[in-house]
Amino acid sequence: MADDAIMQPTRDPRATLPDLIEVLLNKGVYLNLDLIISVADIPLIGVNLRATIAGIETMLEYGMMRQWDKETREWVQRSVHAHLPLADGEEILAKMAGGHYQDNFYRTWRPGSAYLTSQRLIIHRRDPAETLWQATLSSIESITALREPSIGGEERTRIFVRLDDGSESKLSALEPERLITLVQEQRGAALETSSDRLSDPAQPLRRGRMWYLETLSTGGTWRGGEASLTGEELVWKSPMDSRALVRVPVGQLQNLRWEHQDNPTDAPRILVFDTDDSTVRLAADDIGDWHDELEQWHTAGQHTAQQHTARQHTAGQPIPAHGKNDGGEP
């Protein structure tokens, strides 16, 4: 009777469907079943069942379905290789929707797919087949996340990549943080991953759409363009110009302030500051964020300059003669 009681099915009211799925995926279930179906005490059908149910990772961990996994991976490699040429021994580690920001005469996002292989980071479009951007992992000097507003005004996380030849590119990905982490893991310790905002002077602290009030003989004219703030300078450039109209080093920004003035944005105020030889007026939809960023940038730049001046002053002090103190006494 005791054995019969043990074999009776039980039901735990606390168990839920997610609990069952978690057990199936992480631990797995092994079924060893002998079933006989009888009609009027006459056995008609026999079932002998041996089955293992688990998540694919668990199955592979225990040495099952490895041949299927190998064949599936080879099939994926062949299907991708048909439109994305891969080098010998190059394997695809991750794939997701992505894009590349074309920054030349025409500024636009070009959508495609982001591929991380064992050798390269690639943005590729399948139809028509075209590699929009690519770089070998060994040439990537830094890769960081960059928050910026999209055309619709929503905050998006982009991927900012700088190569060892000094070129810079902006990419998008469905999972940008995951892609950055995977690239960093592939590059290892050789990849620069510093999070210090001013440790890399060329790294953009902020980028975005901004209007600049250009002073002409006939009056002022608002011009649209893009502003970029790095650890060294603030730059504003119109897409119609070959060079930047505003380039302000960190040490030249003076008297940062607000002014109420009509401008092309919905903000009632504009940002104004002086330089060594001019006054600059800027407007943006997120002008408050730009103001805070510039204040922090200017303060950090002043602190760095003070440290540099202190070091120069210390280096220029005369060294007391041996055996005498500052008062000149022996």
Structure summarized in a few sentences:
The chain is an alpha+beta fold. The protein contains six helices and 16 strands.
Instruction: Summarize the amount of helix as a percent range.
Output: 10-25%
- Which regions have little confidence, pLDDT < 50, spanning 5+ residues? 192-200, 318-330
The span between the termini is 106 Å
Supply the CATH class of the largest domain: Mainly Beta
Structural shape: elongated
Overview of the molecule:
Residues 299-330 are annotated as: Disordered. With 330 residues, the protein is an alpha+beta fold. Helix content is 24%, strand content 40%. It has 3 domains: 18-62, no CATH class; 87-193, Pleckstrin-homology domain (PH domain)/Phosphotyrosine-binding domain (PTB) (PH-domain like, Roll); 206-311, Roll (PH-domain like). The chain has 6 helices and 16 strands. A hairpin with an 8-residue loop joins strand 12 (233-237) and strand 13. The longest helix has 30 residues, at 287-316.
Task: Please write out the topology.
Elements: H1 2-7, H2 17-26, E1 29-39, E2 42-53, H3 56-61, H4 66-81, E3 92-103, E4 107-117, E5 120-125, E6 130-136, E7 140-149, E8 155-163, E9 168-173, H5 176-187, E10 206-216, E11 219-229, E12 233-237, E13 246-249, E14 254-260, E15 269-274, E16 279-283, H6 287-316
Antiparallel strand pairs: 1-2, 3-4, 3-9, 4-5, 5-6, 7-8, 8-9, 10-11, 10-16, 11-12, 12-13, 14-15, 15-16
